[in-house]
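COURSE: Structural Biology Practicum
ASSIGNMENT: Worksheet 4, Part C
STUDENT ID: 0417
INSTRUCTIONS: Below are two proteins. For each, the amino acid sequence is given first, followed by its structure token string. Answer the questions at the end about the second protein only.

PROTEIN I
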Amino acid sequence: MALTATEISVIVNSALSRIAAGSISEASQSDVKGVEANRHYEQTRDSLLRSYLWPFAKKRAELTQIQIITLDSAPSPNLWEPGDVITGGTSGTTATILVRLSDTEYEIGYLDGEFEDGEDIQNETVDTATGASGYPELEVLQPTFRWAFAYQMPTDLLRLLTVHEDDGIDYEDSRWEIEGNRILTNYSTCNIVYIRKVTDPVEFDVLFTEVLILRLAMKLINPLAGTASDQFKAELREELRIAEGRARTVTAQETNTTGRSNWNLARFK
């Protein structure tokens, strides 16, 4: 995905300038500097977001249990696909298709409301499941063993921080675990706090921006400024180390977690 004008002006050109590699524009992303910047930017940004407890990137969500919907007949003229949003014609209930189990069975999440008996349900491209008495049938998806419930994690989640229901007292086997893009647990509700993927540089904290520029500069220095001296590279690494330390200190001060320690969070610090 091509870099935006804001990403280029705020982050990329600052990183290029830091290693004396010039600059790029939206129109010049096909040259070597643009190619290298596009190659490293997103991974560097998301890695940095995941590495710290950035207050600006925190978000809360109330998750819904994954359910299995069973239809009387297959949607027509085409089957529903993962990612489709389906809507009840009478109830207005919406849900997201997660997995197609068969022509008439689908895993769904993000349910808003309840489907009504016998109503027609269709996706955005008008592939319709015609209602019949007793359908659709809905049942909670149960993992095959150990856990009672499964919850789909938000698509913008980069790092799960806390599950609100977890008071840290329950035995480990009674709490939760991440499996793929799902949270498996014995909790019948699941409210979470997490670090989200933030893509707009306007939303970045200034310390995040500083560290991102330096991390990106470190990624770009070899392909774009390979002749730089060892001393220059060492100075850049030291500048990054100091910036990261400052960011860790400030973000820790803005998160009041006094009391019971949480090993899952502490191990990142």
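PROTEIN II
(use this one for the questions)
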Amino acid sequence: MNEQKRAPKEKWCFGIGAIGKDAIVNLVGAFLMLYLTDTLGIAAGFVGTLFFVARMWDAVNDPVMGMIVDNTKTKYGKFRIWLIVGTLLNSITFVLLFTTLGIVDMKTKCIYVSIMYILYGMTYTIMDVPYWSWLPNLSNDPREREKISVIPRIFASLGGFIICTFGLNFIDFFNRIAGDTTILQEQKNGSTLNISETGFTYCAIAIAALFIITIGITVLNVKEESTLTVKSQKTNLKEAFAVIIKNDQWVAFIGLLLTFNLCTQ
């Protein structure tokens, strides 16, 4: 049985984890297109197609990860272990997404970026699904759950606001720190900001470090009971795919894809 009340420390430590995870997702959401097209010089049509395919895969990936979490039984619980694994893997792929490792050939660069972006989405799901699934399991008291749910959303909004508002300034700052004088510029509020690859890479490293620290605070301070002795009905792959088929988002994407293919034949 879940605890009726959580100590204030646990509530705030759980919420703090949302800062880093939403800082990551907002850097990708707000600036990845800019990075791929303006900084790396990849065609916008290719980037748009990549984003489209990734969203389709997410429609499959999310419920499958939910099934995996639900069937996890360890002495550390079923959320904490995946939160740790997902955070570490996502931090690595997130940084790799914002560096080309010196690749010059455009075709190879496109393949590399595609792999990293798909892996980024998959590893983010490994972390994000257990994080938000843990929330309703923190208490069996509806009022207590409502109070707790406000805290991570506040921190998530804070992380998103900081990155969306000052992201370009951070990228420019890291370019200057690294001494990168590459002439790649973006105008913002009358100022000229450097958006070369070095700044994106260093900014991604800094955010990944913040991500690991904030999730670490959550993992170390929020209690979770062992699930080794918990009896529950397991969800199999067949049932998971049945959920996927009923997913409105997935059905809508399939419809759009078919329409696009028919119109371009």
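ANSWER KEY EXCERPT:
Q1: The first strand starts at residue 185 and ends at 188.
Q2: The chain has a mean pLDDT of 85.
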